[in-house]
Design a protein that fits this description.
The complex is a heterodimer of chains A (about 350) and B (about 270).
Chain A: H1 2-14, H2 33-39, H3 45-89, H4 92-97, E1 101-102, E2 109-110, H5 113-144, H6 147-160, H7 165-183, H8 192-216, H9 220-228, H10 233-244, H11 246-262, H12 265-271, H13 288-297, H14 305-335
Antiparallel strand pairs in A: 1-2
Helix pairs in contact in A: 3-14, 5-8, 5-11, 6-8, 7-8, 7-12, 8-11, 8-12, 9-10, 11-14, 12-13, 13-14
Chain B: E1 23-34, E2 37-48, E3 52-56, H1 63-69, E4 80-88, E5 91-92, H2 100-106, E6 107-110, H3 121-131, H4 138-148, H5 152-155, H6 168-181, E7 186-190, H7 198-211, E8 216-220, H8 224-230, E9 233-238, E10 241-247, H9 248-253, H10 258-264
Parallel strand pairs in B: 3-8, 3-9, 6-7, 7-8
Antiparallel strand pairs in B: 1-2, 1-4, 4-5, 9-10
Helix pairs in contact in B: 3-4, 3-6, 4-6, 6-7
Classes of the chains: A mainly alpha (about 350), B alpha/beta (about 270).
Chain lengths: ~350, ~270
Amino acid sequence: MVHGEELGLASESKSVAVGDALPHQGGSPGCDGLSSVSLFSSTDKHYRLAKWEQRVVMVVLRICAWCSIAITAGIVVILLSEAAPFFKEVSWRDFLFGTQWVPLFEPRSFGVLPIIWGTLLVSVGACFVSVPFGLGIAIFLSEFARPRTRSFLKPLIELLAGIPSVVFGYFALITITPGLQKIFPNIEVFNAFSASIVVGIMTVPMISSLSDDALRAVPRSLREAGYAMGATSFEVSLRVVLPAAISGVIASIILAFSRAIGETMAVTLAAGATPKLTMNFFESIQTMTAYIVQVSIGDTPHGSIEYHSLFAVALVLFLLTLVMNTIAGWVLKKTQISYN
Amino acid sequence: MTTTSHNNPSVSSLDTASHEADNILEVRGVHAYYGSTCALRSIDLDVKANQVYAFIGPSGCGKSTFLRCFNRMNDFITDFKIEGSIKYRNTNIYHTDVDPVLVRRHIGMVFQKPNPLPTSIYNNVAWGPKINGFKVDFDELVETSLKKAALWDQVKERLTDNGYHLSGGQQQRLCIARAIAMNPDVILMDEPCSALDPISARKIEELIVDLKKDYSILIVTHNMQQAARLSHHTVFMLKGEIIEHGPTHNLFATPQQSLTKEYITGKFG
């Protein structure tokens, strides 16, 4: 038994080095070499197979991880290299601060502000729909809904996110806009208003689902603290739970906003293709994504300035969403409180 | 501040002629269930005003469940059911006309784990009185409450700091200050020291000794020395029943039941 104990000890001291070339190292001190070698013999088939299997899996996983990074990097490189010819002809100052976006007709003008403005107009407008509804749904789901109500309501709302955006765009064009025209007769066929509404509806599930998660993550002890001081369940949910979950809620709103910025089909269909700097939601505007669609489906010659302008616009779009997502991550980290 | 204390018709007593007027709480025939599991079995207990009651017993004996019956905190557990009556100043708090929200304004609670709200120290104390529409000078209320909780000197310079920046013991005293600010009659304490280091725990204990002058305190504790040091009355519970209760000194010196004796001498638990 003494011998066996020695072996046990040896296996413990060895287990640290299990990584590589184990059997060839000889016995550890304090243990006789022979039995140690036979104990860790590499002829153990099961062990060798497991080891080999682990290596293969590790390599595959590593490739997967690097692939996603490589693809992102590739996109950025292509955006930059394809946008470079554009910036040879148009100065970045004219591009970023110009107020006329007339890329397809003479005299051309490549001031990107009108389509950035269009994008922000629709995205902010969408927030007026998605934030109240999404937050209301989230608070209802997490604080007031019975488990049964919740169990069918939440998947139902998340189903909204599964509807293709072209369907939403069509819906805006043939249902929302005619409806709006009955209320506001001066509204154009293509308008920022219906685009905002429909993009807002599309981003409701994002806010409701993520905020619901954030609200439910608030520990029960905090709700109890509120109730113990004579608060009603309404006061507890609005004045204890919501402030406690605010970081997650704000992050969900920013992510929804960033999703609205990137939304393409619905706004292309609903908002039209008239780049302009306007505050009027009843007019047709153009977003960056809609411009990209417009040029992509046209017969733009490869290598022309319109062609390269696509990449310049895409670059702006990419940076905008990158900034929004970074802010979301930062807010989440900055305002998070550990309740432990 | 006292204006809000006993002027609510649904809770306050009109029947002041009761011969047991010094009983602030009367528990009669209480049974409680989680689903089909019986958690409390035919409990009767009188709680006199301005006294400290300690509830002792092994884990799972129902002492926390019992404590949470007094401010209807168990209402939030979906399959919880209670029978019998608990009268606060002669009004059954489980009567259908009684709003549990109003009950909790008179019967405050301090929890096992300090649970400050994620807001400033000041707002933590002022929050309850504010949402309950107290018409008082809030600065003064915050100061007196924090002083009563022996926390004022440590936080007066940083009332706008988040409550979570305090140490565990300070957080618990903040929670006590918060309960005091509501000017309750009764304070329920569910193992208020068990999550704290010994020094903080001692400070909380000293605080409870101070508080018992002004409030009726019901405290659940695992620590029998603590029960002996703090309370006037001790209630020993086992498997959802009260085995024995009486003046603390008598219960520890001459327990009437063999189970009590075994528990307090450490034979089980």
